[in-house]
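CHAIN AND CONFORMATION:
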Amino acid sequence: MNHLDKAVVAPKKPAEAVEQALYEIRKKIYPRAVTGKFASARWFFVWLTQLVFYGTPWLSWNGRQAVLFDLASRKFYIFGLVFWPQDVIYLTALLIISAYSLFLFTAIAGRLWCGYACPQTVYTEMFMWIERKVEGDRMARMKLDKEGNSARKIRLKATKHALWIALALWTGFTFVGYFTPIKELWSDVWTANLGGWSTFWILFYGFATYGNAGWMREQVCKYMCPYARFQGVMFDPDTLVITYDRERGEPRGARSRSADYKAKGLGDCVDCGICVQVCPTGIDIRNGLQYECIGCGACIDGCNQVMAKMGYPKGLIRYSTENAVKQKLSNEQIVRRAVRPRILVYTVILLVVIAAALVTLYEREPVKVDVIRDRANTMRDRDDPIVENVYRLQIMNTDEVARQFTINASGLEDMKLESERQPIRVEGASNRLVPVRVRVKREDVKPGSNRIEFTIEARDAAQDSTAAPIVIHEKASFVMQ
């Protein structure tokens, strides 16, 4: 009898359980203060953006707030321009211009928006400045956080947070001031007569500023902002980004200033860690470009300071391109390679949209008319020899100059139009609903829908105005049942 040999397999030892956290525990980052041309550029944009943001609502124009988005009245005032809901095309153009500008600048020079003009970056920079002034620089803040509770620590923390909250609330107040006349809003705050919605949005926007810039900081850029995730598809080997010259810097290592480091086989990087200490997102740029990098250039400033102290050439970390580092291209060659097909396409589209928007805005008629036929009052009784349709003309005067309007109708024989006494006055930046009746003899109109046309002439209401009138033609339907 044949028997099959059975292989004896030793039982496997149970695998050790490995516990892995789904989310990384946040390690608090203590960015070190740094000076240099990139730090100066960041502060330039901090001052520029905040002077515009905090100052614009207080400007006046023609006796009103210069920039006001009056949602209640559905009118947007931007200096001498008044936009209505019907002008949504300009908002569309603005969004397209913003999108293509972002694509263009990112394809050329990386995350310029993130590093210098993004509100998250700007307010984080402001909040960190307050933090440094109150608690000290990096080592002082780290030491303070490790200390136990004391009167000094509580005093410093309370002062810092009080200043943060004050800045956040003022930011929230300014934000609401773009939608509610800010001088009236200030009066309401001063007299404790603030409405519920205004209070809510001031506190909400203030809380968002305080939380994002004071507490979350780099977490917003790393986990909440979608731009950090799709930036890679807009980069190519000729995009200017923060780069570490690995060929020059490696192998890194500590050394004295007078040491012959090349004889020891070392590169220019002294492994001081300054580039990591100054980074607001806490990354090590020497490990290559990472999605957390916001392109602020702080590591360049920090590294250049160290290179200057060591007597080495600057630029170990620099704004450059992948091709430039690999092929050792000159600045002139980098600029020449920046002009490539995708950049030309973005530029052409951007210029065309900007030109079209400006031309449309320049030729924009300051008067708009909507004709609405009253379906409830289509016509009189069938035995009546007169057929009558009722319309409502919504006249919008988008300028801030009062105008007088005259209305006429044509398209059918012996048409008669009845309305309120003409000319009809419409004040600047306002609208008026004008009911009109159009009458026609039954014998002069065919059954069904008949085409008619309203002609609206608008003249400046000033007595001495000799300018040619604005003439608008609006088609409508006259119904005979």
